[in-house]
């Protein structure tokens, strides 16, 4: 669900956030219109507004875990965690986390990839939020949800700054609510 | 400069939350795992607060964070001091036009990249990473910023491994750390 449909319609902060995101055509390969959030991070006000919108939504939901997907989820997750008093748990590519981990594979366009979480980082019954910069097919977020549910946590919601067209209309991922701030400004046919 | 020498009461709590994992990623390395610090909201907040207290009001407009653990600490600091956050990334991750800086590893080389146009000449910058070992990565980060005409005010890390003498590889720029691991 998009923020504009969920209480923030007409919020001027959303327009500024959307406009601060740069579209890079044909990255990483032809046909992909890459949503570059690094330009949002260059705008202190828009970056702060992004974090504030998430914090306002999640601060009273009893969330004790913010899990961020490597690497761009690391840019947003910790600030949200700090503001709501939750712990931050990085979900990482294989062999990056030094301790004992659990792994969850997920499907890419060609082949598979894997997401890992430290054993013991999250306790059964904890209420959690998963954060990434962007959602496309939802494959990565679905793997993240499975990791948290495997250790007995409840995933309250998945939150992303940008939702690609593939995600549009998806209010839930495998039953978990999805909250997205903005959609891409340009949805052009590149073919 | 080390905060531990100043004996700020928050430092002890931070140090005890860092987990040492022996023989990772290879035998002989005592890996400093900061993920356990992130599991303690108070200790994590204290970590950020210590940096923010040092850098607020110093006219720093850029916080550059080294991928990937620098992405965890850099943005909260940037937000609190009103600076922009600039990620310094491994090759081919940043989508736009980049400048690159190569640096030497124990075996071989690696490369750090920054987006062209992210930093303007004359901007005052901070470089943030979780740990300084030999200083090679931080030196590459500093070079990227200076290449575009920014002034590196200081490098800031949670942890220093003093035996590896990274502090002396920062081209004369100061280093601020919260804890040392001997």
Question: What would you say this structure looks like, in words?
Answer:
The complex is a heterodimer of chains A (191) and B (182). Helix content of chain A is 27%, strand content 31%. Chain A has five helices and ten strands, in the order αββααβαββββαβββ. In chain A, helix 1 packs across helix 3 and helix 3 (44-58) packs across helix 4. The two termini of chain A are 28 Å apart. The mean pLDDT of chain A is 93. Chain B has 182 residues and is of the alpha/beta class. Chain B has helices spanning 3-6, 9-17, 35-38, 41-55, 70-81, 136-147; strands spanning 19-22, 30-33, 62-66, 84-88, 98-104, 109-115, 124-132, 151-160, 175-180. The longest helix of chain B is centred in the first third of the chain and has 15 residues, at 41-55. The radius of gyration of chain B is 16 Å and the shape is globular. Chains A and B meet through helix 3, helix 4 and strand 4 of A and helix 4, helix 5 and strand 4 of B.
Task: List descriptors.
heterodimer; A: 191 residues; alpha/beta; six-stranded mixed sheet; 10 strands; globular; B: 182 residues; two-stranded antiparallel sheet; 6 helices; 31% helix; EC 2.4.2.7 (chain B)
String of helices and strands of chain B: HHEEHHEHEEEEHEE
**Strands of chain A, total number:** 10
Name the poorly predicted regions of chain A. Answer: none
Give average pLDDT of chain B, whole number.
95
Main beta-sheet annotation of chain A: 6 strands, mixed
Principal-axis shape of chain B equals globular
Q: β content of chain A, as a range?
A: 25-35%
């Amino acid at each position: 669900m998009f923020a504009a449909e969920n209480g923030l319609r007409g919020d001027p902060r959303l327009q500024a956030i959307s406009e601060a995101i740069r579209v890079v055509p044909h990255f990483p390969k032809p046909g992909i219109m890459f949503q570059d959030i690094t330009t949002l991070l260059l705008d202190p006000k828009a970056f702060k507004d992004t974090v504030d919108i998430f914090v306002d939504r999640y601060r009273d939901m009893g969330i004790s875990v913010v899990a961020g997907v490597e690497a761009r989820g690391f840019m947003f997750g910790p600030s949200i965690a700090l503001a709501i008093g939750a712990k931050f748990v990085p979900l990482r590519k294989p062999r990056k986390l030094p301790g004992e981990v659990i792994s969850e594979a997920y499907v890419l366009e060609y082949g598979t990839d894997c997401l890992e979480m430290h054993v013991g980082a999250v306790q059964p019954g904890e209420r959690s939020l998963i954060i990434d910069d962007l959602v496309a097919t939802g494959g990565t977020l679905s793997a993240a949800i499975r990791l948290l549910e495997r250790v007995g946590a409840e995933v309250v919601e998945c939150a992303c700054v940008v939702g690609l067209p593939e995600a549009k209309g998806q209010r839930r991922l495998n039953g978990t609510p999805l909250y997205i701030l903005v959609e891409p400004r340009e949805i052009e046919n590149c073919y | 400069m080390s905060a531990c020498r100043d004996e700020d009461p928050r430092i002890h709590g931070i140090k005890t939350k860092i987990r040492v994992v022996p023989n990772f990623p290879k035998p002989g390395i005592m890996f400093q795992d900061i993920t356990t610090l992130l599991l303690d909201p108070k200790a994590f907040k204290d970590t950020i607060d210590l940096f923010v207290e040092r850098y607020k009001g110093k006219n720093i407009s850029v916080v550059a964070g080294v991928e990937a653990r620098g992405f965890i600490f850099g943005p909260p600091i940037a937000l609190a001091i009103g600076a922009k956050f600039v990620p310094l990334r491994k090759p081919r991750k940043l989508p736009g036009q980049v400048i690159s800086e190569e640096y030497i590893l124990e075996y071989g080389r690696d490369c750090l990249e920054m987006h062209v146009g992210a930093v303007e000449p004359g901007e005052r910058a901070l470089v943030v990473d979780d740990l300084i070992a030999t200083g090679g990565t931080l030196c590459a980060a500093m070079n990227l910023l200076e290449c575009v005409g920014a002034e590196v005010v200081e490098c800031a890390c949670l942890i220093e491994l003093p035996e590896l003498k990274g502090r002396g590889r920062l081209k004369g720029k100061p280093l601020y750390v919260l804890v040392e691991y001997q």
